[in-house]
Design goal:
By secondary structure, the chain is of the alpha/beta class. It has one domain: TIM Barrel, CATH 3.20.20. It contains eleven helices and eight strands. It is globular and about 75 Å long.
C-alpha cells in the first residue's frame, strides 16, 4: 500500500518525507487556505519539489470548461501534479478529456461503488472513497473499499483505490486488508501508526536493564 500525506503544510511534508515512506501528497483549496495568504503556484511547486510521487491538487471550478482550464494550468507547474476532480457529471466529462490528453486525475468525494465504477470507466487514475465520512453517517466505509476492489478486479480496471477521510490507524489496517492501493492521511495518523504502548514499554525495560548493568561495573 502507498502512503500519501493529506496536507499543504511544507514542514509536515518535509518531516514525513524524511522517514522514507511517503509516496505522495493530497491537498485541496481548504488545506492550502490554512497555510495563509500563499502564492498557490509557488506553494504547490514547493510541495512537488519535496515529493517524488504524485501531488493531487483540486480544481475550484464546477463546470467542465473551468475544470479543464484549471487542471491544464496545474500540470504546467510540475510533472507530478495530479488533477483532483469532483464526482459530478461535469467532472467525469473533464476526466475523459484529461485522460485523452495524458493528464492524471483523482476523482474525489466518492461515496458509492457505482460512483467509483463510473470514474474508472471515464479514465480516472485514482478514485477517493471517503470512508471516515461514511462511518460518521452511520454507514460502513470499509465495505465500500471491498466493493470497489472486487469490481475493479472483476473488470481489470487500472484505476487505483485511494482510501481517504482516514479517522484512525485501524482504518489503515482495514483498508490494506481490503486491497486499497493507497491511503491518504493527516500527519497525526502517520505518527499514531508508529506508536504502540508495548514498544515503549519494551524499550524502557531494555534501557533500564542496560543502566543496571553499567552501574554494577
Amino acid at each position: 500500500m502507498k502512503f500519501f500525506l493529506d496536507t499543504a503544510n511544507l514542514d509536515e511534508i518535509r518531516d514525513l518525507a524524511s522517514w522514507g515512506i511517503l509516496d505522495g501528497v493530497t491537498t485541496n483549496p481548504s488545506l492550502i487556505s490554512k497555510e495563509g495568504n500563499v502564492d498557490i503556484q509557488k506553494h504547490l511547486t514547493a510541495i512537488c519539489d519535496m515529493v517524488h510521487g504524485p501531488v493531487s491538487m483540486e480544481v475550484i471550478a464546477t463546470d467542465t470548461k473551468g475544470m479543464l482550464k484549471e487542471g491544464r494550468n496545474y500540470v504546467s507547474w510540475a510533472d507530478n501534479i495530479v488533477v483532483k476532480v469532483p464526482m459530478t457529471e461535469e467532472g467525469m466529462q473533464a476526466v475523459k478529456i484529461f485522460r485523452e490528453e495524458g493528464i492524471e486525475t483523482n476523482v474525489t468525494l466518492v461515496f458509492s461503488a457505482n460512483q467509483a465504477l463510473i470514474a474508472a470507466k471515464a479514465g480516472a487514475t485514482y478514485v477517493s472513497p471517503f470512508i471516515g465520512r461514511l462511518d460518521d453517517a452511520g454507514n460502513d466505509g470499509m465495505t465500500l473499499i471491498h466493493e470497489i476492489r472486487t469490481i475493479f478486479d472483476n473488470y481489470h480496471f487500472g484505476t487505483e483505490i485511494l482510501a481517504a477521510s482516514i479517522r484512525h490507524p485501524r482504518h489503515i489496517t482495514e483498508a490494506a486488508l481490503a486491497g486499497s492501493d493507497v491511503a491518504t492521511m493527516p500527519r497525526k495518523i502517520f505518527k499514531m501508526l508508529m506508536k504502540h504502548p508495548k514498544t515503549d514499554e519494551g524499550l524502557a525495560k531494555f534501557l533500564a536493564d542496560w543502566k543496571k548493568r553499567k552501574s554494577k561495573k
